Amino acid sequence: YFAASDRRWLVTPALMLSISTKFVPVVVVPFFWLYLIRLETSWRRRLLVAAGNLALAVGLGVLLMAPVWPGWEDWAVRDLGQGAGKSPFALLVLFLRPWLTTNVAFDVSRTLMGGIFLLIYLWLAWRALTGPPTLTNVVLVPSFGIFFWYLMLPNQQFHAWYLLWPMAIAVLLMPMLAFTQIFVFGLTALLSITLYETLRVWWWDTLTPLVLHVIAVSLVFGLPLLVGLYYRTRKDRSHDSHLLVS
């Protein structure tokens, strides 16, 4: 809203409040800044906008975190990387663990999943940089793609409410592919609660974690990917197929 209105100076403060609540939105900050920079016509103004927003972000970050900063060793965010579950990342760790130690399996999975995610991130950044300087092209489309692929790849532990990040963007992209894909993902994400918390306890208690994750990850994450591939292959929807799969 702030980026689309005459209140663009509030974009970075809003982002910093968001990041202070949940760190994940930090991945889309560069796209908001890129949009603000591309609105300017002179390089001098672009440099001022970039430097001003960076300084504002650092200042607000220090101001917001200083009163509650627990120290690097006690920072809860660091603990998130110690476990994995209900995600493609966890499935890869479980698959590799019989041949590697658990720690090595985690390291290999982080490198592989993180590397693929980085390539997707750079590709979306390139499209935002070279495409039309519109809010949809520079912010909404890449932000949706980044949140979606973050959940698909480097995110180690998945919960159904994580869909709120791409879902908020998908609503703004209606009636394009993003909404259809996130609708399916929303259903399968809710299905994950049934698979892991109910059926596993009632009937599947004899399944190994690997087999359980093969079944659940295929349904929860595989179906949204198939929807994206389906739309990508439909010639009559080629105008919006760039949103996710290309």
User: What spatial form do the alpha-carbon principal axes imply?
Assistant: globular
Structural class: mainly alpha
List how many beta strands DSSP finds.
0
**Number of helical regions:** 11
Q: What's the overall average pLDDT, rounded?
A: 85
Rounded to an integer, what's the Rg over CA atoms? 20 Å
Strand content: under 5%
Please supply descriptive tags for the structure shown above.
246 residues, globular, disordered C terminus, mainly alpha
Summarize the structure.
The chain is mainly α and 246 residues long. Helices cover 66% and strands 0% of the residues. It has helices at residues 11-21, 29-38, 43-65, 76-79, 88-96, 102-130, 135-152, 164-172, 177-202, 209-220, 222-233.
Map the helices and strands.
Blueprint: H1 11-21, H2 29-38, H3 43-65, H4 76-79, H5 88-96, H6 102-130, H7 135-152, H8 164-172, H9 177-202, H10 209-220, H11 222-233
Overall description:
The chain is mainly α and 246 residues long. Helices cover 66% and strands 0% of the residues. It contains eleven helices and no strands. Helix 1 packs parallel to helix 3 and helix 9 runs antiparallel to helix 11. The longest helix has 29 residues. The protein is globular, with a radius of gyration of 20 Å. The C terminus is likely disordered.
